[in-house]
Amino acid sequence: MRYATSLIGGPSNLATFVAVYALFGPTFPGIYDKDRGVYTLFYPGLSFAFPIPSQYTDCCHGREAELPLEFPDGTTPVTCRVSIYDGSADKKVGVGSLMHKASAPPLLPGNPYMEEVLVKLGEELYFSVGGQHIPFGASPQDVWTELGRPCGIHQKQVDQMVIHSASDPHPRTTLCGDYFYNYFTRGLDILFDGQTHRIKKFVLHTNYPGHADFNSYIKCNFVIEGSDFDNSKQSITPSTKWDQVKEILGDCGRAAIQTQGSTSNPFGSTFVYGYQNIAFEVMKNGYIATVTLFQS
C-alpha cells in the first residue's frame, strides 16, 4: 500500500505497528477485543488490526487500550488486516454518510458479468445481454459462433457415472472421448459428446466460497423458472438455497456424495440431487455449488 510517497506492507516492508504509527502519525487510542485477541487502530477512513500474543494482553487494558507500540521484549505486532471505508464524521466508524448510496460500477456495453442466463429445461440456454441461444445438440462451431472462443478445452478421460447405467443395454466403456468447453468468464462449462460432437450437458457455476472451484469461475446468473416443473411462480437462481429448491421442486430422495478427498478439497464433500433434466450440487452450508443440465 502506498501512502503519500511511502510504501508499507509486503515481505520487504512489514506493516508493523511502529511502521504504521510512524507513517500515518498520532491518532486516538484503538480498541482491544480480548475475545479475538486483536487490537484495532483507527484513522479517518482506514483501520489496522493487530493480533496481540496472549502473553502480552496485559499491555492492552480494557476496551480502549493505550497504544501498544512495542512489547516488553522489544517486538512490535504486525498488521493482519487493513480496512478501507468512508470516513465521514457524521456516522459511526466504518459506516460513512455515503455508504448507503454505494452502487455497483457501470459495466461496459455487452459485458456479460451480470448477464442473466435463462434456462429452458431440456432445450436450451438463452443469454439475455447478447441474445444468444445455445440448444442441446448444438455443435462446437455453433458455440464458437455464439459465445466465441472458450477459455479452455478439457478432455473428459473417464465417465464415472457409467456404473449407474444398468438400464442401458449397450453401456459405453469407462474410457470416454467427451470433452468440455470451459467459459470461466461466464461461469459455464459445456460438455460435448465425443462421438457425435453435439452438446449433451451444461454445467452452471455459482462461485460460492467453500467449494473446490471457488474463484475459478465467475458466477453464472442463471434463472430457472419453477413453471417448468409444477406451475410454480418462483424461480431458482444462484442465491436460492437448497431448502427453497425443495419447496419449489419437491423432494427428490437421497443424494449422491461427491468428494475429491481432503487433500484436493479441504472444504469436504458435496451432495448431488437429481431431478428430470437437472441435477444440483449442494454444499454442506445449503448453498448450490453447480447446476448440471441434461436431457433425460
Automatic annotation (TrEMBL):
Belongs to the PHAF1 family. It comes from the Eukaryota. InterPro entries: PHAF1 (IPR005373), PHAF1/BROMI (IPR039156). This is Uncharacterized protein.
